[in-house]
C-alpha cells in the first residue's frame, strides 16, 4: 500500500517519544524517506500534519501554482516550511515530538495517527473523536 490509511493510537513516553505505526513507516520507506518524516502544525486543525517526500512535493506544487513574490505565496511558504520539523525515526520506529508541536496539538499522553492518503495527522485522541463525530 502506498497511502496512509486507518487510525492508530499510541502512547507518548516520558521523553516525548512515540512509535509511528508500522504501516505508516512502510509508506514512508517506499516514499524514499524512511529515516524520518516532515511534521508541522496543521493550518486548519489542532493537529500535526506529517508525511514523507510526497508531502514535501505536494507543498512544492502548491507553492509553484502561486505567483512569485506574492504575499499569498510568501505567507504560505512561511506557514508550511517555516514551522516544519524533520523528525528522525529511531531503530525502534519512534520519533521525539518537540514540545512546540505537542503544545499545538494538545498532546500529552497519547497520539491518534490518522491516515489521510498522501499525508497523516497526529491528534490528541479525544479531540480527534470529536472532530470525527463532526465530520
Q: Overview of this structure, please?
A:
- It is a single chain.
- This protein is an alpha+beta fold.
- The chain is built from five helices and eight strands.
- The chain has helices at residues 22-30, 53-64, 71-81, 99-105, 125-134; strands spanning 7-11, 17-19, 36-41, 48-51, 85-88, 94-96, 110-115, 120-123.
- The protein has a six-stranded antiparallel beta sheet with strand order 1-7-8-4-3-5.
- The radius of gyration is 15 Å and the shape is globular.
- It starts with 6 loop residues before the first strand and ends with a helix.
- The model has no long low-confidence stretch (mean pLDDT 93).
Question: TL;DR of this structure?
Answer:
This protein has 135 residues and is α+β, with helices and mostly antiparallel strands. The chain is built from five helices and eight strands, in the order ββαββααββαββα.
What is the number of helices?
A: 5
Q: What class would the helix/strand composition place it in?
A: alpha+beta
- In angstroms, what separates the terminal alpha carbons? 25 Å
In terms of DSSP E residues, the strand content is 25-35%
Portion of residues in helices?
Answer: 25-40%
What secondary-structure arrangement, pairings included, does this model have?
Blueprint: E1 7-11, E2 17-19, H1 22-30, E3 36-41, E4 48-51, H2 53-64, H3 71-81, E5 85-88, E6 94-96, H4 99-105, E7 110-115, E8 120-123, H5 125-134
Antiparallel strand pairs: 1-7, 2-6, 3-4, 3-5, 4-8, 7-8
